[in-house]
Each structure stands twice: as C-alpha cells, then as structure tokens.
Write a structure and sequence with these properties.
about 425 residues, alpha/beta, Rossmann fold, 7-stranded parallel sheet, 6-stranded parallel sheet, 13 strands, about 15% strand, Glycosyltransferase family 4 protein, Glyco_trans_4-like_N, transferase, glycosyltransferase activity
Length: about 425
C-alpha cells in the first residue's frame, strides 16, 4: 500500500464545495491501494461550517493538525460581515463597496500574497519535513485555493526532493476575482512568479477544468491532467415532482452571477401565463449577495422566492432532487470559462434538467452536452431562456419526463478516484 500526504486547508467541519473534493478522494483511495494521511489547520477560519461532513471522514484516517495564524480573525474585529463575505469569495461591484471593503480588498490583494493563509507556509514546512522523512511517503499532494498550500509543496520539494502533485481546484493568476483585488503591478508580478515556480517544480499538475489545463500547459512542460469534481450519491431515478414548478439554485450566488435575462424571462412568463404564475417557485439555498436579491425584487419575483440561506450538504442534495429545474450560473467573463462549479456534478446525480447561464465556450457546457443533462445559455439570451423554460413547463404540466441525461457514472467520485490513484502510482 502506497502512502500519500495530502495538504489541504478545507476539511470537515468546513462546509461548501472546497472540502468535498479531497474528502471523497480520501474515502475511496484505500480501495485502490493508497493510504492517505491528511494535514490540515488546527484552528482555521472557515466561512462556512457543516458539521455533518465530519461523519463522512473514513474510519482510521490519520489527520495531522498544525495551528495557523488567520488575518481574517483580526479583520473581523472591524467588520465581521465584510470579513466573512470576502473570505467566502463574495465581492460586490466596486460602485457598491464601502470604503472599508475597498481597503480590505487592497490589503488582501497586495499584502497577503498569494493569499491570507501565507503565514501557514513556513511553520508547515518546518513541521512536515520530519513527518515526510520518517513517514516513507510515496508522494505529497497540495490542493488550492488557497494557493499558499502549493508554496508549502514547493518548499518541501526543494528541501526533500519528494514527489509532488499540485491539485488546482481553481486557476491562480487567471481566477475570476483577481481583478477585484486591486493588485498593483508589483503584486501582480509576484503572483505570476510564484505560479511559474509551482507549475515548473511540481512532478504532476491536476486541474478540474479543460481551460485551466490548456492555460497551464502553455506555461509549463510538466504533465497536466484533468480530474474533474464529481458526485458521491446514487443517481436519482425518481422523476416525481412537487406540486410547484420549482427552479432551484443550490450554492453561493455571488454578485457577478446575477442573470438579469433570467429574472426578466421569469417576470414575463408570470405576467403572460396564469398557469406559470400559479405553479412557479424560485428556491435559493446558500449565501446570496444583496445585489442578487435586489434584482429579484426589481423584477417583482420576491413573492415567488423561497430563500433558505446556507443549508448542510444533506439538505442541499434533498433540495436538488426535489426541484423541477436546477439553475447553474457562472460569471460572464473570459476568466471564468474554465470554472466548472462543483454543484454541476450533484446536479447530474439529481437527474433533473439543468438550466445553465454562463460565459461563451464555458467548460461546463462540454459536460452538460456530453451527458445531455440540460441547456446552456449566455447572459444575453433572454428570449431563448424564456422559450426553454416554457418548453420545460409544458412537459411539467403533462407530467412528461424532463431529463434525458445519460453516461453519468463517469463522474462518480469512485470512478474519478481510480483515475487519481493511477496517476499517483505513476508519479
């Protein structure tokens, strides 16, 4: 049995999609002859807590913990709400930012490079050197964001010549929110230099998207492999629906993911179709920005809204399977083409039609098209979105099957872990 050390910031009781990837890999790696040891912060500042995920940690897994200094805990003294939203990645448009928010973003972007967890790098390297030397590890794996963890891997690689796999759940310098961090030229160059060092030093690089693979392959000659996120539940074969025609978005809904065209289409359908008005419900579950809620009120949709706030993972899965249509949104920009939201895979398992709105040439479109799981639109496609919802609603009224997806098993976490295990053994 080969042994690997996984260095991650997000681990139960952290909630949200960031923790799911490696929690599930750890769950299945033993079945492929690999024993995982997990290194995490002892006192992290998680923006979302979901204690139910602690029950999913495999029995007997060794978890090593080391204290971390969290600047967000100090920033919270000045504004707990602003600190939590920025930490969670919810950044408002500049014209809606307070002076305090602008200052916090500038400090975060230019003084905490690559991110606010940079203070965990040196203590972790010092601590892990002995662990790796004594532990007979086949390889170490770092996963980011936060990308500070890749610098832990870089320094361990330089010190010990250990085999190292760098897993990128998101891009680095091309990540969507970088432009909002008010980076000066010097800070931008520091990010680019650190990214270059990591990409050229790692023995293998994993990305979760095809676009990020293309980007990294243009920057390094090291091997780059796509292993997407996935689902870990049975595929839903129950096509029964609620009494309402419910369009649901499960997960954080940031300011940039605010589809004016969708809200407009829904308003028109409500106005012109009495049956739609009687049956329609909009359900949101997760952190939702004030700007999104403002747009919903602007189009007079608040009367049809069920806003649950953050829910634990079990509740999220239940809501996905109860919905009539699942809404998938991504920021409309060139930088977000390579973002495949983790929720898409649980949406696939829910086996309900996906209504996706995002950038042109979006990686998520490849998955939705490959599995015939729904339709993808741009933010400008108000008329097409309206007609598609009308079509789905007609099927709903006739009690016809709305989802015709197929080939979903390839995205099960167990299947994806087999790909990971083969990669680890080859490093």
């Amino acid at each position: 049995m080969k042994k690997v050390l996984i260095i991650t910031y997000y681990w139960p009781p952290s909630g949200g999609p960031g923790v799911q990837r490696w929690l599930k890999f750890v769950k299945y790696l033993r079945g492929y002859g690999i024993e995982a040891v997990v290194y995490v912060p002892e006192n992290p500042s998680y923006p979302i807590i979901d204690k139910s995920l602690e029950e999913e940690i495999p029995e007997g897994i060794r978890v090593i913990r080391k204290k971390i200094f969290e600047p967000y805990s100090i920033a919270g003294i000045f504004s707990k709400k602003d600190t939590e939203t920025i930490s969670a990645g919810i950044i408002q448009k500049e014209e809606n930012q307070s002076a305090l928010q602008k200052a916090m973003l500038y400090i975060r972007g230019n003084y905490f490079i690559p991110d606010a967890r940079k203070f965990w790098i040196s203590p972790s390297v010092k601590f892990l050197k002995k662990e790796i030397e004594d532990g007979h590890y086949h390889a170490i794996i770092t996963t980011g964001p936060p990308h500070s963890l890749h610098l832990i891997g870089l320094k361990l690689k330089q010190a010990l010549a250990v085999k190292w796999i760098a897993d990128f759940r998101d891009p680095w310098t091309q990540i969507g929110y970088h432009e909002k961090l008010k980076l000066n030229d010097s800070s931008r160059k520091k990010h680019e230099k650190l990214e270059e060092q990591v990409l050229n030093a790692a023995d293998h690089i994993i990305t979760t998207s095809f676009t990020t693979k293309e980007e990294f392959s243009s920057k390094t000659s090291q091997p780059v492999t796509v292993i997407t996120n996935g689902f870990d539940t049975e595929i839903n074969r129950n096509n029964s629906t609620k009494k309402q025609f419910e369009i649901a978005h499960i997960g954080s809904l940031l300011s940039g993911r605010n589809p004016d065209s969708l809200w407009k289409a829904l308003q028109e359908l409500i106005k012109n179709n009495k049956d739609f008005k009687d049956y329609f419900r909009l359900r949101l579950a997760g952190k939702v920005s004030d700007e999104v809620l403002g747009s919903i009120r602007k189009y007079d949709l608040q009367h049809f809204l069920e806003n649950e706030g953050y829910v634990n993972h079990a509740r999220a899965v239940k809501l996905q399977r109860e919905a009539s249509v699942l809404l998938l949104l991504e920021i409309d920009s060139e930088e977000t083409r390579g973002i495949i939201p983790g929720k898409i895979f649980e949406y696939l398992a829910a086996n309900k039609p996906i209504l996706a709105i995002g950038p042109k040439n979006w990686d998520a479109e490849k998955i939705i098209s490959k599995t015939n799981a729904g339709k993808v639109f741009s933010y400008a496609d108000a008329s097409e979105i309206k007609h598609h919802i009308e079509s789905l609603f007609r099927k709903y009224l006739k009690n016809e099957q709305m989802s015709t997806s197929h080939n979903l098993e390839q995205y099960h976490r167990k299947s994806l872990t087999e790909d990971l295990a083969n990669l680890i053994k080859q490093v």
